[in-house]
Design the sequence.
């Protein structure tokens, strides 16, 4: 009955002659969380940016099942269609919250303007929904009029999550969502993310170099090396019984830390 949400076919990206990622193939199902792991320079961000149409790949296709059930190659959308998709159906959580927030408008406006972008014009409803979302990401209601400049790193990241989830996206892209945060803050943020993703039934693609993040958040994972996916499977299987020597190394070196 159900169909995948995303279908990726032979996705390849070169920067000039340098390989970003090559021959990536996978499907993502509604509600499924996929982690992309690998060492620095393995092509994770290149792949994620290609999947979210932030980058134009050199070859290959990414097919997305739109809300009207039409399958579309996201690289063939018009700019207006792409922008609509980004605003309504997709979220993008950046590693650096400043890249995903407007730092000089209030926290409430950061969340509320997303609702306005999808056509909500009722001020009372916008404010109420923004407050509700601040609560869901554990930001106190009395901070609603403060600018994210005055927030801690963890609070900014939680605000970025609220801003992205308020419109009810079906798919969220995340690049190192807990990078750059203190370990204790990371753990709380991960718990929060896991709760929200599960509760909302979101599909997500999470780039991380941290296998603990993959373990906690994802159902499936792909391991990248030198731009290629060298191993993929259910997260528990890959982490507990890695087949590729490189994955074994990755898993054991992390465990020894
Ligand atoms: N804008 C760019 N121009 C040229 N080469 C690039 C560009 N962005 C990435 N690359 C190259 O593509 C390859 C993959 O880089 P990418 O940033 O996707 O890796 P990553 O896995 O996200 O690494 P990290 O964990 O450090 O973020 C690397 O060799 C990198 O040098
Ligand atoms: Mg990266």
Sequence:
């Amino acid at each position: 009955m159900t169909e995948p949400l995303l279908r990726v076919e032979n996705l390849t990206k070169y920067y000039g002659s340098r390989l970003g990622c090559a021959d990536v193939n996978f499907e993502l199902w509604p509600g499924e969380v996929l982690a992309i792991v690998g060492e620095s320079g393995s092509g994770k961000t290149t792949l994620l940016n290609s999947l979210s149409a932030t980058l134009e790949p050199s070859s290959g296709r990414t097919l997305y099942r739109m809300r009207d059930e039409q399958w579309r190659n996201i690289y063939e959308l018009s700019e207006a269609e792409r922008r609509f998709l980004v605003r309504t159906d997709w979220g993008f959580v950046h590693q650096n919250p400043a890249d995903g927030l407007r730092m000089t408008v209030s926290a409430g406006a950061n969340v509320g303007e997303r609702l306005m972008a999808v056509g909500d014009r009722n001020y009372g409803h916008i404010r109420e929904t923004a407050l509700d979302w601040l609560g869901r990401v554990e930001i106190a209601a009395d901070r609603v009029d403060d600018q994210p400049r005055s927030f801690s790193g963890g609070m900014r990241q939680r605000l970025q999550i609220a801003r992205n989830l308020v419109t009810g996206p079906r798919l969220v892209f995340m690049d190192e969502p807990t990078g750059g945060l203190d370990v204790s803050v990371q753990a709380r943020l991960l718990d929060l993310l896991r709760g929200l993703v599960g509760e909302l039934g979101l599909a997500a693609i999470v780039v991380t170099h941290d296998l603990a993040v993959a373990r906690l958040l994802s159902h499936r994972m792909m391991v990248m090396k030198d731009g290629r996916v060298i191993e993929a499977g259910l997260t528990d299987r890959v982490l507990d019984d890695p087949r590729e020597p490189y994955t074994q190394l990755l898993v054991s070196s992390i465990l020894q830390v």
